[in-house]
Amino acid sequence: MIVFPNAKINIGINVTNRRSDGYHDIETVFYPLPIHDALEAVPGNDLTFQSSGLDIPGSQEDNLCIKGYHLIKKDHKLPPINIHLHKHIPIGAGLGGGSADAAFFIKLLNDLFSLGLSKDNMLDYARRLGADCAFFIENKPVFAFEKGDQFERVSVDLSKYTIALVMPPVHVSTAEAYRGVKPAPVKQSLYELILEPVKEWKNLIKNDFEESVFKNHPVIRGVKAALYDAGAIYSSMSGSGASVFGIFNSKPDLSELEKTNQVFY
Q1: Architecture category of domain 162-264 in CATH
Q2: Catalytic-residue membership of 132
Q3: Of these residues, 37, 132, 149, 208, which one is catalytic?
Q4: Per residue in 7-18, pLDDT tens?
Q5: How many helices (H) and strands (E) does the chain have?
Q6: If you average pLDDT over residues 30-35, what whole number do you get?
Q7: pTM as predicted
């Protein structure tokens, strides 16, 4: 069985509080984006994991798909399987690619072996693998809060716009981004601001990670500026970076950016 995990972007991020458990309280809007990995699993003699495409850092046992297999196997009888992941979603980009792989893998196991998992069961497993993994179970726009794993549905539809995503040749670790951010309560929740017209977002919606990340990686700041120069009505870094997206009324000419960056539409 094969599935195609997709990326997401963050429309705004407010880091509101440092929690006693080491995490942060945030609020953000997750929006799915049609950039995909390919994930296949078939029954085998042993549990194996292979990958192609982009290099995946870390050991095999640290891979979220492998962790997901062992997590579900504690509660359900699973045979050994052979897993193959073709990695296309940029890594270290703030696009949730690894989280998407994990969530889609949970859904794949449920379908492949008829586990009978409910949506709430799958959400619970996903939350145990990572804060934003649970988003990809339903894979629809949501306002996310607390650790980014609690959701409220929001009516955000960007289908009439062109979303261009630019991945510069730099990597930003989540730990680095959080070290540079200063948590603060918000005057108006993103849950309300996201309902304003897209053309107003530029003046209302921010990503708290941008200040420190742009300081440490000026090339990312330059990408955002270039997207606005190309006519974006809203542009932002996604997550903790390094990718930056722009929302356009029509497909822009980003030929200059394409010379030194990966560009997706």
Answers
A1: 2-Layer Sandwich (3.30)
A2: yes
A3: 132
A4: 999 999 999 998
A5: 10, 12
A6: 98
A7: 0.94
